[in-house]
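Action item from last meeting closed. Structure (352 res):
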C-alpha cells in the first residue's frame, strides 16, 4: 500500500493554503478555486490485466444497454470529456475492421453504442488511435506495420463514426516519456497521426498525455518542442498514483510547464490526475481507488496551473452506488460519493 501523509490535509490545512494564496501563471493571476474533474479516460478492456482485475471481467460482460448506462453515469457525475484509450488491443479490435479480428464481448457494437450514448448525454469523446501493435512495446511508434495499421484505423474510424456530434477529437495513446525533453521519434509519431487526422476531421481536437512530468525541463528547447507538436491539448500525468511524484511536489512541476505553454502559445495545458493506488507493487498489482483526501489534494495541487483536469480513471475507481453497470471494487462507491458530495458544495464557489 502507499505511504500517505494525509494528516494535515485531513484537517483541511492543504486546501486552506492553496485557496488562500493565488499565484501567477505566465504573468497572469492563477485561479485559487480548485477545479472539478472535467473528464476521464475510458476503456472497453484495461490493457494491463493484473491492474484491471476488478473491472475487466464486468466490462467484458456488459450489454450495450449497460455501456450506455455507464456513459450516462459519468455524464451525471458532471464530467464532460471521455478519452477512449484504445480502439484495438492485443491484436483484436473494438470496432468493425479487417485489421484485426474482433473482441468477443457482451456488446457487439461497442463504438456505435458509446458514441450514440455520448450524443444523447452531451459528452465529448476523444477517440484513441491505438493500439495497433503490442501496447507496451518500446518500438510501437516506429514499427512500420503498426504505423500502417494505425493510419488505416484513423481513416476507418473517421469514416465510420465522424458523423457523431460526440466525436470531439483524437487521442494518441502511445505515451511519451519526457526524459527531460520529448524524443524526436515521438514528435514524428504524433505529427504523422495528426497530419492525417486534420485532413479527415478538420474540427477535431488532438490530445496527448505524456509522462515524465517530474523530470521535464521547461526551458527554451522544451518550448520549441511544444511549438513543433501538432496537438491542441497536452494533459500531463501527475504521476502520484504510480508513486513517481508526491502531491507536495506537483505544483512546482505544473507551474514550470504552464509557463512553457504560455510561451509556446500552441497547445492548452490540462492535467491527467491519477485517482488510483496500487494494492501492492507498482505495475504488478491491482489498481484500487485512492482515498478522497488524497484525490482532493491532487486536484488542489494542479488547479492553478491547468485549464482542465482529466482523471485516470472513472472505470474501476468510481461507481455510483446503484449503478446498473458496476465495475470495480466496492471501495469505488466511496470515492464516487465523497467526490459528488464535495462537488455539490464546491459548485456555488465556481459560479460566484
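Sequence:
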Amino acid at each position: 500500500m502507499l505511504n500517505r501523509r494525509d494528516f494535515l490535509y485531513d484537517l483541511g490545512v492543504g486546501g486552506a493554503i492553496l485557496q488562500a494564496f493565488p499565484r501567477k501563471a505566465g504573468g497572469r493571476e492563477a485561479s485559487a478555486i480548485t477545479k472539478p474533474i472535467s473528464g476521464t479516460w475510458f476503456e472497453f478492456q484495461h490493457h494491463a490485466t493484473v491492474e484491471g482485475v476488478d473491472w475487466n471481467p464486468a466490462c467484458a460482460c456488459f450489454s450495450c444497454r449497460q455501456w450506455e448506462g455507464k456513459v450516462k453515469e459519468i455524464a451525471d457525475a458532471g464530467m464532460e470529456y471521455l478519452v477512449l484509450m484504445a480502439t484495438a488491443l492485443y491484436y483484436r479490435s473494438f470496432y468493425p475492421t479487417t485489421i484485426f479480428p474482433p473482441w468477443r464481448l457482451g456488446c457487439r457494437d461497442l463504438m456505435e453504442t458509446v458514441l450514440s450514448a455520448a450524443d444523447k448525454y452531451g459528452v465529448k469523446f476523444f477517440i484513441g488511435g491505438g493500439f495497433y501493435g503490442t501496447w507496451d512495446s518500446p518500438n510501437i511508434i516506429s514499427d512500420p506495420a503498426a504505423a500502417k495499421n494505425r493510419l488505416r484505423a484513423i481513416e476507418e474510424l473517421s469514416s465510420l463514426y465522424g458523423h457523431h456530434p460526440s466525436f470531439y477529437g483524437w487521442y494518441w495513446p502511445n505515451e511519451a516519456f519526457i526524459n527531460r525533453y520529448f524524443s524526436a521519434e515521438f514528435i514524428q509519431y504524433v505529427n504523422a497521426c495528426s497530419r492525417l487526422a486534420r485532413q479527415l476531421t478538420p474540427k477535431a481536437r488532438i490530445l496527448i498525455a505524456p509522462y515524465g512530468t517530474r523530470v521535464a525541463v521547461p526551458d527554451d528547447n522544451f518550448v520549441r518542442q511544444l511549438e513543433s507538436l501538432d496537438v491542441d491539448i497536452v494533459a500531463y500525468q501527475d504521476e502520484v498514483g504510480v508513486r513517481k511524484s508526491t502531491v507536495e511536489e506537483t505544483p512546482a512541476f505544473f507551474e514550470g510547464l504552464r509557463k512553457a505553454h504560455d510561451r509556446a502559445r500552441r497547445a492548452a495545458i490540462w492535467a491527467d490526475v491519477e485517482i488510483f493506488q496500487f494494492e501492492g507493487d507498482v505495475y504488478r498489482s491491482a489498481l484500487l481507488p485512492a482515498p478522497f483526501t488524497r484525490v482532493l489534494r491532487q486536484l488542489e495541487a494542479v488547479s492553478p496551473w491547468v485549464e482542465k483536469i482529466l482523471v485516470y480513471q472513472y472505470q474501476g475507481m468510481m461507481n455510483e452506488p446503484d449503478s446498473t453497470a458496476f465495475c470495480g471494487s466496492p471501495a469505488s462507491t466511496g470515492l464516487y460519493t465523497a467526490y459528488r458530495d464535495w462537488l455539490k458544495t464546491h459548485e456555488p464557489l465556481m459560479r460566484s
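Note appended to the action item: The chain is about 40% helix and 15% strand.
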